[in-house]
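The instructor's notes for this session suggest beginning with a concrete chain rather than abstract definitions. Hand out the sequence below and ask the class to guess, before any prediction is shown, which regions might be ordered.
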Amino acid sequence: MARRREHRGQSSQDRRNERVESETREKKLSDVDASERKLIGIFVVFFIVIPAVSVLVYVYKYGSGAKPLEPVVTERGLIKTDISFQDILTENSKIAGNESVRNYNYPVLAYITTWNSKGYEMAKRFNSKFTHLSPVWYDLRSHGSSLILEGRHNADKGWISDLRMRGDALVLPRIVLEAYPTELFKKKKLRNKAIDLIVTECKEMEYDGIVLESWSRWAAYGILRDPDLRNKAITFIKQLGHALHSVKSTRNPEQQLQLIYVIGPPRSDALQQHDFGPEDRQSLSGAVDGFSLMTYDFSSPNNPGPNAPIKWIRFTLRLLLGSTGNNAKILAPKIFLGINFYGNDFVLSEGSGGGGAILGRDYLSLLEKHRPVLQWEKNTGEHFFVYSDDDNAKHVVFYPSLMSIHLRLEEALFWGTGISIWEIGQGLDHFFYLL
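After discussion, reveal the predicted structure:
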């Protein structure tokens, strides 16, 4: 009996232990379930709900149900090959759109000249469409046995202040290096003087850097055919770039001063000794922040024709960058593809070799006076027209159109380059809505 009671007692105790263990297990399981539910909730929120909301936001902003951002000239169907003189006269002064929205994300460098005040106005009006503004102000010249930097009298600090209140475009005045190159490259003291003059001017005037033009001058002097002088020329550009990079911008201490270097396109099917080529670009890539490529002035009064044939532009880019492969995509962002906002009015009479550059106002006057038929040349990607003047001399006029500019903007997008515009005071107002 005692054994049975003991047995019953043990059974009862066991049952109590089992109940405690069961309750403990249930509590643990409950805690585990709660923890798992919490983890599942976090998973759902972070990996399902948030992505779903993001997708909805993306679709709302960019999806097929939303109208993509387009320039006002695109919305109105003005980018076309079949245009009339009346279309241009009517729409140029009539168009009004968002003057601050950018239609392309790549860098846009705009030149402004002292002899064309409209450029200053356009720079302020369309400030947000530009990343770099380069007023053509300075020349670095030989002065006896030394050097002098001329042009501060051109600088307009009030205009720069207005620009900086309106947007974030960098101001990099152009400096043309007119100093005698043979003297410059033979004397280290002169080279150091040139660099000091430029850097000091940037500091005192609070510029964001400079645009330097010298290659075409050096080619004219013939020094680029001499391997030793050519090497010294490249070394000078590098030293200038490093000197500018060592100085912080007064506007933005996190940003160093920049150097953009002007380069010309080749004038033949193969690179000549004096041409700027891929090896030069590669050598300067660490010291130069960008290359302003002058892909315009293809024709001249002695050889009338288009300003910048699209096939020639592609050939030039291919020569500088190679193919459109990965390597080209890496190198391309430093190229500012040149686009002209001016045109040319060439005289076609035999032996005349006359004519030259025209601005937007000249172009509009010709349209009003002669009411010409505009023609589209597919191979060059440019519009042109022919007219006879008061002396019955025949002329051909090549001037940019919305379609020709659009093609070049898209070409820059395809290659991954930026663009440079020469110059913004020369174009028609509605050109800017494409940028």
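Then share the key points. Residues 1-69 have pLDDT under 50 and may be disordered. The chain has 14 helices and 15 strands.
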